[in-house]
């Protein structure tokens, strides 16, 4: 008789009962958050690979792509700022009396670039 009751229950309730039996601290909210994520259109079935890792939804893929695009843009801006800071340091180091080779070595720039800057300011 117990099997006929479980077969008449919606599958979500059967899974919830199984989850509670395996882990008594499992709450209904925990079950729903893990297995039935809610989207504006209602509950959506979450699919898992055989190794237990869930497949990403199109929305999650799009969010990750946007995050990666923003991260790459921030990294590009940071690199540009670091390069500009090195170029801005050239005249200060030359005014301190360092020669072109010392400035190039200190800033990690080619001697030709420091020479070009030095030639433009004279």
How would you explain this protein's 3D organization?
- Strand 1 (38-39) and strand 2 form a beta hairpin.
- This protein has a two-stranded antiparallel ribbon with strand order 1-2.
- Mean pLDDT is 78; it is low at 1-6.
- The protein is mainly alpha-helical.
- The protein is built from six helices and two strands.
- Helices cover 69% and strands 3% of the residues.
- The protein has a domain at 1-55.
Salient structural properties:
122 residues, mainly alpha, two-stranded antiparallel ribbon, 2 strands, 69% helix
What topology does this entry show?
Elements: H1 2-8, H2 11-22, H3 28-35, E1 38-39, E2 42-43, H4 58-95, H5 100-107, H6 111-121
Antiparallel strand pairs: 1-2
Helix pairs in contact: 4-5, 5-6
The proportion of residues forming helix, as a percent range, comes to 55-70%
Order of helices and strands: HHHEEHHH
- State the separation between the terminal residues, measured CA to CA: 97 Å
Helix tally equals 6
Using the CA coordinates, give the radius of gyration: 31 Å
- Beta-strand content bin: under 5%
Strand order in the largest sheet: 1-2
pLDDT under 50 segments (min length 5)? 1-6
Largest sheet: 2 strands, antiparallel
- Mean of pLDDT: 78
Question: What is the 3D shape?
Answer: rod-shaped
**Assembly category:** single chain
